[in-house]
């Protein structure tokens, strides 16, 4: 019985690795979008005294999150994935994720990627602006967007873990979800 369970576990690991490699191959082709939930930042939402330009008032990346963000960038570089543009929410945890992965100079703050966790009235307009930006992307390389769980879920119905990404293929209708990928 133990042998069967071990064999099953090994098969599951193999399939997971194969799926990850297929996603990486899709990114290598270019023309796709990598929609990333920011790396590990303990807690939920933001404190009552949240100020967008003051990171000391926000939920921030943990040390684990900082390592996770750096690993994301390393994995893409190791696989030779060309990143043509990096857009990020203006929240510090998203900006830090993007900067640790891709470098300070590569990151462009993009307000439609900002969290609407505390203000759902912005959900539809922000989601539509992001959908339009995704649909307009045709390459070369990969468009990276770093955002928050609520934004990813509004776009894709997927609830990603921190540091997890959803790979999207732009289309005339907006996009198709290719798969999910974790970089830690």
UniProtKB/TrEMBL annotation:
Record's keyword terms, sorted: Signal
Pfam family, one: His_Phos_1
CDD domains in the cross-refs: HP_PGM_like (cd07067)
Record carries keyword ATP-binding: no
Signal sequence residues: 1-19
Protein name according to UniProt: Histidine phosphatase family protein
Source organism: Aquibium pacificus
